[in-house]
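Support case: 3IX complex. Customer-provided input:
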Amino acid sequence: MTTHENGQTDQAGQTERPVALTATANNKGVDAAVAAARRVIASLLHAGDGSSAEMARIAEQLNAVADHLDQHAPAVEERMVDMWKGEGVTRHDPVTGPENAIAPPLPLAGRDDGSIEGVVVLGMPYQGPPGCVHGGVSALLLDHTLGVANHWAGVSGMTAELTLRYHRPTPLFEPLTVTGRQVSVDGRKIRTTGTISAGGKVCVSAEGLFIAKHLPRPR
Ligand SMILES: CCCCC/C=C\C/C=C\C/C=C\C/C=C/CCCC(=O)SCCNC(=O)CCNC(=O)[C@H](O)C(C)(C)COP(=O)(O)OP(=O)(O)OC[C@H]1O[C@@H](n2cnc3c(N)ncnc32)[C@H](O)[C@@H]1OP(=O)(O)O
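Agent response - structure generated as follows:
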């Protein structure tokens, strides 16, 4: 029986199901508050200045929430140590993290064939051209996905080069499939590819060069 480095195996040595590479959101604590904050970001953009909502009062309420959080937060240095403890990546990263309100979030899972994949629907906060995803947002999703694909393959590093090809506009409000796969490791040089597809068509493809290097975690 073969066991993938990060996988689960059954009697036949096959991975039973894709392995989550993303922290699961709790429906309580900071995760629930972050989910609400994501809603607020999207709702503000949806409402706009022409909305009949009382925006001055909303700004006051949101500032009161931020003041309350700041008053009860640990020192930045302490929080940095805390967030990098243990596995220490997937709860706070800006693509998948349930503690990070700017993360869409994109859930990623690893497959036995070495690839990773996730599906996400992006709304107005991620808009570039009319009705379409901002190219920089696609770059963010792919940089991270390629990084996690390297982790899944067992050799990871820092992005040295990321080359993107935008084949066709990437739609908002539709399921997007994001994939990544490590292609080769040559000394410290790691090459990784990935795609964002909609309706079975590739919208963006990426090629990354990563260099095996890890910065020390805050302590
Ligand atoms: C629920 C359970 C979950 C379980 C956990 C599961 C999954 C999650 C886990 C992990 C996932 C975590 C994160 C993944 C996501 C992250 C992805 C985001 C990644 C980033 O967001 S990361 C930030 C952006 N990134 C930078 O901030 C890099 C800044 N930069 C540098 O820090 C240096 O620049 C560096 C390190 C790149 C190299 O520096 P260096 O000193 O170590 O190495 P050096 O320069 O000697 O280069 C060695 C050889 O690479 C060649 N080389 C270097 N650079 C090149 C280039 N650009 N083009 C072509 N070749 C290049 C040289 O030419 C030489 O080649 P040669 O050996 O042939 O001469």
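The chain has four helices and seven strands.

Case will auto-close in a few days if no follow-up is received.
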